Amino acid sequence: MPTLTTHSPAETEMLGERWGREAQYGWIIGLSGDLGAGKTQLVKGLARGLGSVARVHSPTFTLVNEYSGGRLRLFHLDLYRLETREQIVAAGLEEYLQPDGVTVIEWAERMANDEWRMANLRRVKFEIIGETERRITYEDTDA
Ligand code: ADP
Ligand code: MG
Question: Rounded CA gap, 110 and 99, in Å?
């Protein structure tokens, strides 16, 4: 599994920007890791790499933010407040798992892997290893 360490918020954002430039229609990027690990920072880069100038912030109350204006639409989900499959379905989030664009999900670990069928998933794990160091491990799964 590819692993890298970033040493600043800007570096994490740059990684997201690179992924945004590479992103293809239908991609899902699942982010897991503690509060403050850098998930939202990466999403800022993703939006920029896709060419959107939208202001990125965690969709804590709305559950989904949509950023347009780029090469592909970006749907930004945050599952922090959701725990069960039922809650995720009830919140209407299932449609974003076959996105008309690209979906990025914070707190993706809230989704049990065997309960969801996701194609084109990049699973990303963030670990805080220092004040400004973050270890980022990722893996692509094609189903
Ligand atoms: P999350 O969405 O995972 O809760 P955020 O991206 O909102 O995390 O916040 C990450 C915080 O950590 C920000 O305050 C950011 O400035 C700080 N930070 C320090 N070093 C890094 C790094 N290498 N990558 C990302 N964020 C970092
Ligand atoms: Mg966040």
Answer: 19
